[in-house]
Write a structure and sequence with these properties.
Length: about 425
């Protein structure tokens, strides 16, 4: 008896099954969130309905910044000499509300000012951004000089290089984190859609059936802040989930409140079930997909061709010097190094480690650094250095003494010409 009731109940409890995270997000949106958005005209107030491309497209990087801050070079948002944030640019940043976790701020041309001034500039920038970007965490600002010219003031070279690499790795991780970001975006959208439904249904409930509609509408719009507070209190909703009060008041001015829909608990319950159950299962799938694609990263274009991506290319400094030259960059100083080499008693064209050490320690570099230089310079790994390897060792010593970092592995352009056939 009543077997059809129990069968229907079992059907409702069966979890949604998805093959991929993108497919799951698309189906959940179409089946559970979109009906709520359409019922309460969400798209007229906030953003258009999502399409398949919103779930399937690859991540993109949007470049925003004021005039002459370096956008065409790569990404730049602020110039160390132009910290002023215009009203127009301020509105652009505010338009990114609820997407603050996707914003990356870059302070460009930082090599053109002294360290003390740079600290003041950085502090001023953080103060200005704090008034526009309202987030519980301090926004991440990358500091550097993001173009191919040599640093004008090299005092903060190590800081700039570290910042460049952090930003580069951040951008390369976009494909790996794309599914998680889309999942978080759907969660944010669902929470906003719920709040919107409560707002619209509350306004509908307060409207008279026949007379005084226009005057009541003005009253409700003016007192929208009180309606926000009531909804927040009654439904235990975070204040951060509510849309901008001023923007909502502006949008409501042109709306016909009589066409608003009353509260429909079933639609809200469906979205709550999505957030409580379906999203949790998709979160597990996100981790599984990430584990299957550990090496996924941004590739191609400027990200290929150098060991440091687009940032190290073209600086013409340190271990990157001569990367685009036809001739071996060490060759220009090799005659000077050869004079020293032949005073170290080479046998069969090579000097021993002990003899090489006598000369290399004159640089006063730590033994750990000299050990790394030896490892890089001894290309054929025979424990001896010929004239080219000795010149390479001296070149790397020069690189380090000038304040540059040593490479982890010897770049192809630094390999001695006679050893390149061994690679």
């Amino acid at each position: 008896m009543f077997s059809w009731v129990s069968k229907d109940a079992r059907r409702k409890k069966e979890p949604e099954l998805f093959q991929t995270v993108a497919e799951g997000l698309r189906q959940l949106y179409a089946q559970k969130l979109l009906p709520l958005e359409e019922h309460y005209r969400f798209h007229e107030f906030h953003s258009p309905a999502l399409e398949d491309a919103d779930f399937d497209n690859k991540p993109m990087v949007l470049l925003v910044g004021q005039y002459s801050t370096g956008k065409t070079t790569f990404i730049l948002l602020f110039d160390a000499h132009k910290l002023d944030i215009s009203d127009e640019f301020s509105e652009v940043i505010k338009a990114l509300k609820n997407h603050e976790d996707k914003i990356r701020v870059v302070l460009n041309k930082a090599d053109q000012i002294e360290t003390q001034q740079l600290m003041r500039v950085y502090g001023a920038l953080m103060w200005s951004l704090g008034k526009i970007i309202n987030t519980p965490e301090v926004v991440r600002v990358y500091i550097g000089s993001f173009w191919s010219h040599p640093l004008l003031i090299p005092d903060n070279r190590k800081l700039f290089e570290a910042e460049e690499q952090d930003l580069f790795k951040d951008i390369q991780s976009l494909p790996r984190n794309a599914a998680l970001r889309k999942l978080n975006d759907l969660i944010k959208r669902a929470r906003l859609a719920k709040v919107h439904a409560y707002i619209i249904s509350s306004l509908k409930k307060e409207m008279p059936n026949v007379f005084g509609k226009e005057s009541k509408k003005k009253e409700l719009v003016n007192n929208l802040g009180e309606i926000y507070a009531k909804i927040e209190r009654e439904h235990q909703i975070s204040a951060g989930d509510f849309p901008s009060l001023r923007k909502m008041q502006e949008l409501l001015q042109t709306q016909d409140f009589s066409k608003f829909q009353a509260l429909k608990p079933k639609l809200l319950d469906t979205v709550d079930d999505m957030l409580a159950n379906d999203i949790a299962r998709l979160m597990v799938m996100v981790r599984q997909e990430e584990s299957l694609m550990p090496s996924q990263a941004v590739k191609g274009g400027a990200f290929d061709g150098t060991m440091n991506g687009p940032f190290g290319h073209g600086y013409g400094e340190g271990a990157g010097e001569g990367i685009d030259d036809i001739e071996w960059v060490v060759g220009k100083d090799k005659p000077t190094y050869d004079e020293i080499f032949y005073t170290l008693s080479p046998v069969n064209g090579k000097i021993t480690g002990a003899n090489a050490k006598k000369e290399m320690v004159k640089s006063k570099l730590p033994n750990t650094v000299l050990g790394k230089i030896w490892k890089l310079a001894d290309v054929d790994k025979d424990g001896l250095l010929d004239d080219e390897e000795f010149a390479l060792a001296n070149h790397l010593i020069k690189v380090k003494l000038e304040g540059h970092e040593l490479p982890t592995d010897l770049p192809p352009h630094l390999i001695p010409p006679s050893k390149r056939r061994l690679e």
